[in-house]
Task: structure prediction
Amino acid sequence: MKRIALLILCLLCVADASVYSSEEAPPRKRHTLSDFFSPYFEVSGGAMNSNSRNETASVINYYHDLEKDEMVYDEDLHYNIINFDGWTYNVGFRAGAYLFRFWGVFLDNDLFLAKGDYRYKYYSRDKEDFLEHDSRLRYYLGFGSVFFPFNLFFDSTSRYSFLNGTFAGFSLGPTYLYGQDKAEKKYGMDYEDWEMTFRFEVGYLWEFTEHFFVGVAFKTVLSFNNEEGDEYKGGNMPTDDVPLNTKSFGFVIKVVRK
Amino acid sequence: MLSLCLCGMSCDPDWWADPPKSINVLAEKPSGVDSLEMQVYFRDSLLYRECSGRLDTSKVVFRRDYDSLDLGLKNELEVRLAFYCDGREIELPSYWAEVDSAESRSYYFREVDEHKKTLSKSFKLQKFLSPEDTSCGKFVNFAVLKVDGVVDR
Result:
């Protein structure tokens, strides 16, 4: 009896197995290169509120008071001061690759028109300053990355589109400042003509067509430059502090093509 | 050619590892005077005397390796400067430049206006050295700056 029961159980098992083996297995999704890689192009434009503070810290901390014709000590003396307050309008272009459905790497180009008030002072103790309304160009060339963190949580086989959703990005590189020599020609003040720039952005991208996406991003640009004395650049010269020179905040609208 | 250069470098390894230490004194004529004279004394003996106009330059430079000075316990160079303007000689107070036999050291005598001529952090202000006789000008910003290392321009 026990043997018969075991035989029936075995037959049931075989029957059950044959039912499934006779069915077709679901077709296996084959990954293609485009699942992991696609070209990335972006054109953007926007406006940012921007302000710059460029100045050189005094080494001797003495100021020649021309009225009294005597040297005056000032612990916090700065010279060759230029302040910019205004807006920057930019158009940008990025080219790179989009990898693993959540990560983009690119070369970043941006052309800025910095329009606003440029104020100059010889020394921080001067009461008088010079004001110019001017528009100047800045060019940024950097290398950066953009992440779509929420795309990480979706299965790569899903129909969820690339590039759709919230993103965060950064890039870094030099910004070249054109027109800095105007102050040298006019007032005899000397400034660095480039800054090291870090850029951060957070935004959202919507799928417009299969290949085109449109988006908006909040952007922060922070730039630093190291205004060094130009006299005696010996090997043992201590490096100067690197001050934060430019801060910009604003929005950009972008069109992305994959 | 490269091997010759390498041979030349290796022939005098001390020079590369430890170049000769020197004392350097530079003085630059203020724009308001016709010329500047610098005299350098070491233990009351004159080592150097030069006038800015004679070399058709606004600067005079004194340089001496420590090896060529007979250094003792206390070593100071006396630097005497004088301005010439309108045929008058205006003497400045003497400055005693300390000699440090361990490292090269430079003293720079000049007018200081950082906005016109930027200074690097290597320069340390020692004192202002304006003349008592102000008939050619007060020169309140004529200063002595010390630099660790060699300044040659």
Summary: The longest strand of chain B covers residues 76-85. The domain at 20-148 of chain B is CATH 2.60.40 (Immunoglobulin-like). The interface with chain A takes residues 112-123, 125, 128, 138, 140-141, 143, 145, 147-151, 153 of chain B (CB under 8 Å).
